[in-house]
Amino acid sequence: MCLDIGDKRIGVAVSDPFNSYSLPVETYHRKNLKTDLAKMCEYVKAKSITQIVCGLPVNFDGTPSIQTQKAKFFIEKLKEVTLLPVHEVDERCSTVEAEEVLIEQGKSRLERKSFVDSLAAATILQGYLNQINKNK
């Protein structure tokens, strides 16, 4: 499972059973930390997740940002409640790529807002899967 963690929304994506490709699942609208973590635990249980990949937002030059700190805080809490390995990966440009795909598909601004986070999570996850499969 992959999460694109934002202040208002969390994009969720999963891989196929063979870790070959990623699929967007949902854009979850955040409530509060406790509820958000409980929802992520629901995904873990329902989809038999064994590992979590989280996009780490950094500045364009790769340096940490305020969003990096917020994401790391959420990731630490996620590790505590799921007890699963959590991999942090650079998410630079994932939202831009997702937005471009949705524009190419002719999605309206409102439709893009509904899908962009889950598609960004799928983009992050696909990059991660490509990397681990390349190293096999």
Description:
The protein has 136 residues and is α/β, with parallel strands linked by helices. It has one domain (2-134): 2-Layer Sandwich (Nucleotidyltransferase, domain 5). It has 4 helices and 5 strands. It has helices at 33-46, 66-82, 94-104, 109-134; strands at 2-5, 9-15, 22-29, 52-56, 86-90. The model has no long low-confidence stretch (mean pLDDT 88).
Explain briefly what this protein structure is.
This protein has 136 residues and is α/β, with parallel strands linked by helices. It is built from four helices and five strands, in the order E-E-E-H-E-H-E-H-H.
Characteristics:
136 residues, alpha/beta, Nucleotidyltransferase, domain 5, 4 helices, 50% helix
Topology:
Elements: E1 2-5, E2 9-15, E3 22-29, H1 33-46, E4 52-56, H2 66-82, E5 86-90, H3 94-104, H4 109-134
Parallel strand pairs: 1-4, 4-5
Antiparallel strand pairs: 1-2, 2-3
Helix pairs in contact: 1-2, 3-4
Helix content: 40-55%
- Could you name the ranges where pLDDT drops below 50 across 5 or more consecutive residues? none
Compute the separation of the termini in Å. Answer: 20 Å
Q: Summarize the biggest pleated sheet.
A: 5 strands, mixed
Mean pLDDT: 88
User: If classified by CATH, what would the architecture be?
Assistant: 2-Layer Sandwich
Shape: globular
> What string gives the helices and strands in order?
EEEHEHEHH
Cα-based radius of gyration, to the nearest Å: 14 Å
